[in-house]
Design the sequence.
């Protein structure tokens, strides 16, 4: 489009002596939006690329042909060109890691790796390098300022009376030389170190007596006639005449205000990176815990369903089974909410009853916001479902609840509301991103500190935060904004200092065909397998037992495999199957890749893939692209039967 400026692509150089590996890596990076400007197979060639092309980042294999290793090359690139380097290697031994660390790499990726791992490592490296450069530029800028303005210089005689002050000293002390002459320095200023007042007269006497230079780093100067405090580095030295006698004392005050600001900014950036890494670790932990819980919940809920089929609902044991089923469903909800911290649930759009989502999160939200904050809900009883992804809608609510809690350190109220509204043409004029039609408006408001008009335009920017270092990454609201946009909605905010903040999210209603399809799917626990043969590949014994009972009870012939090796042996023996049910994460390989290999020989074989993992291990994106049915753990008997009906045909 004319007049539109395209964002410049990040330019990368690949240093890899295996041409096939390099071409594959280049293809992946190109698809991810990067520009590959060079491929070097040796260290000297890589240095020439850096000298001539000045790439934004270098992907470096450690083992290269020739005399110069990848580590040697990375060290030269760092010293001579200040270009970030990421090691891409199959070596992870301690010696190699220690050698690599000495070059200060911006990342270390072990082969094999996923495209997502590669992209996230590159983006973090580019960001970290930009931040490091920003800090260095600020430090250089600070140095230039200090050299140009000079330091404050004060000269006193042997009696401690002021003889001279330069213009910087006049500014620091708040007093002109004419007014200060023949007065003692403590009459003009107070020096403090970590809150303790320094005896200036005593320091001057000690310097005169011992003829030694004293350094007082990182102290505060307070002009007596002003309220400001200025951080300085102080140096006190004797003035010694040609006869060796002390003539007086010179005090040099270096204003370190700018240096403090740079250090604070650097500390803030460092704290943000640490917090981001901590949240990533929590996410990985949450994903692992969720996987184990999801397998257990599948066993509990599935076997409960089977037991309920065998007991008449008038039996006193039946109600106990109903309670077990309900508890398992609530536990599954808690597991899904735990996964909000990992931010790695697959997107699965459909009909979402927003009021139900909010009600199910109430208990967790109360724990999250604490006892000092009161949770209030105003939910429209006549609300239609929205078209969205339940997991990311929950994440919106979680992020805004955390944001509200932090804005109310002394307590207050968090109010969550829903209402169905009709947006008219006149309304669109006052809301630039809006469009006419019927929408659900979800509001999240607090009675906290509020925000100024200057702050509001920036709150959705990544890494923008008004919180103190270490209290947040500045990503919470930008994530909320991104999720709302993914839902084809828009968001606006109303806030005033001291009056609290309210976020308004406008989300589209579910499409009529999806709503009809969702409502028409009955809960069925009966299925006639007709003797069709099913291969189940699942490493968790409890899940295998449930699937075996459920499928055999529905008239299927079932073959069980605990791993890919056993499954492949069955196929190699000529066993034919009408359906494959396969876990994605298995002890000896990837279930998705196994099913893909089977489909090369039998492309029409119905298949269901299942996993309790989230994130890259679940292979969600690949499964969706290939069109396979995916059954997320935990699942119950109804969900299993519906999935089988969908792939086999009713």
Sequence:
């Amino acid at each position: 489009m004319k007049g539109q400026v395209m964002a410049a692509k990040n330019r990368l150089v690949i240093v890899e002596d295996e041409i096939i590996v390099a071409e594959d890596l280049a293809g992946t990076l190109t698809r991810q939006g990067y520009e590959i400007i060079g491929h070097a197979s040796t260290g000297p060639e890589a240095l020439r690329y850096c000298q001539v092309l000045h790439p934004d980042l270098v992907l470096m294999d450690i083992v290269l042909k020739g005399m110069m290793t990848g580590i040697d090359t990375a060290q030269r690139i760092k010293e001579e060109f200040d270009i970030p380097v990421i090691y891409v290697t199959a070596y992870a031994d301690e010696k190699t890691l220690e050698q690599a660390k000495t070059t200060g790499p911006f990342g270390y990726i072990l082969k094999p790796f996923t495209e997502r791992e590669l992209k996230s490592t590159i983006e973090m490296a580019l960001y970290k390098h930009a931040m490091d450069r920003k800090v260095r530029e600020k430090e250089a800028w600070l140095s230039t300022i200090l050299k140009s303005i000079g330091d404050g210089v004060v000269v006193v005689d042997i009696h401690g009376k002021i003889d001279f002050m330069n213009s910087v000293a006049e500014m620091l002390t708040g007093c002109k030389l004419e007014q200060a002459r023949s007065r003692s320095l403590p009459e003009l200023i107070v020096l403090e170190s970590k809150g303790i007042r320094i005896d200036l007269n005593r320091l001057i006497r000690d310097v005169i007596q011992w003829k030694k230079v004293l350094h007082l780093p990182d102290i505060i100067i307070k002009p007596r006639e002003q309220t400001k405090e200025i951080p300085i580095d102080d140096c006190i030295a004797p003035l010694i005449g040609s006869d060796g006698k002390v003539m007086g004392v010179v005090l040099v005050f270096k204003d370190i205000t700018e240096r403090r600001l740079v250090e604070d900014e650097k500390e803030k950036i460092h704290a943000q990176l640490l917090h981001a890494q901590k949240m990533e670790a929590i996410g990985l932990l949450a994903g692992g815990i969720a996987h184990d819980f999801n397998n257990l919940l599948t066993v509990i809920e599935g076997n409960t369903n089977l037991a309920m089929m065998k007991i008449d609902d008038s039996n006193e044991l039946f109600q106990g089974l109903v309670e077990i089923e309900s508890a398992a469903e609530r536990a599954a909800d808690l597991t899904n909410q735990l996964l909000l911290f990992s931010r790695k649930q697959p997107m699965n759009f459909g009909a979402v009853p927003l009021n139900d989502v909010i009600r199910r999160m109430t208990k967790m939200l109360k724990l999250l916001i604490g006892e000092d904050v009161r949770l209030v809900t105003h939910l429209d009883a006549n609300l239609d479902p929205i078209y969205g992804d339940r997991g990311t809608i929950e994440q919106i609510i979680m992020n805004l609840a955390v944001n509200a809690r932090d804005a109310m350190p002394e307590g207050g109220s968090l109010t969550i509301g829903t209402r169905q509204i009709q947006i008219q043409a006149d309304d669109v004029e006052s809301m630039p991103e809006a469009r006419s039609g019927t929408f659900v408006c979800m509001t999240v408001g607090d009675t906290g500190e509020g925000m100024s008009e200057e702050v509001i335009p920036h709150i959705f920017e990544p890494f923008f935060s008004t919180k103190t270092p270490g209290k947040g990454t500045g990503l919470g609201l930008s994530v909320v904004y991104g999720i709302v946009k993914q839902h084809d909605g828009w968001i606006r905010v109303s806030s005033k200092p001291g009056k609290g903040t309210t976020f308004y999210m406008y989300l589209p209603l579910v499409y009529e065909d999806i709503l009809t399809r969702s409502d028409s799917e009955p809960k069925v626990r009966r299925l006639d397998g007709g003797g069709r043969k099913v291969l189940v590949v699942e490493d968790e014994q409890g899940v295998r037992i449930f699937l075996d009972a459920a499928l055999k009870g529905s008239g299927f012939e079932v073959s069980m495999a605990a791993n890919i090796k056993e499954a492949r042996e069955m196929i190699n023996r000529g066993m034919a199957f009408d359906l494959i049910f396969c876990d994605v994460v298995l002890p000896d390989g990837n279930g998705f890749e196994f099913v893909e290999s089977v489909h090369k020989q039998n492309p029409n074989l119905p298949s269901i893939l299942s996993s309790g993992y989230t994130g890259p291990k679940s292979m969600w994106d690949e499964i969706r692209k290939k069109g396979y049915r995916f059954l997320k753990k935990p699942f119950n008997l109804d969900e299993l039967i519906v999935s089988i009906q969908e792939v086999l045909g009713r």
Notes: Residues 522-648 form a domain with the Rossmann fold fold (CATH 3.40.50.2300). Residues 1-6, 468-474, 513-524 have pLDDT under 50 and may be disordered.
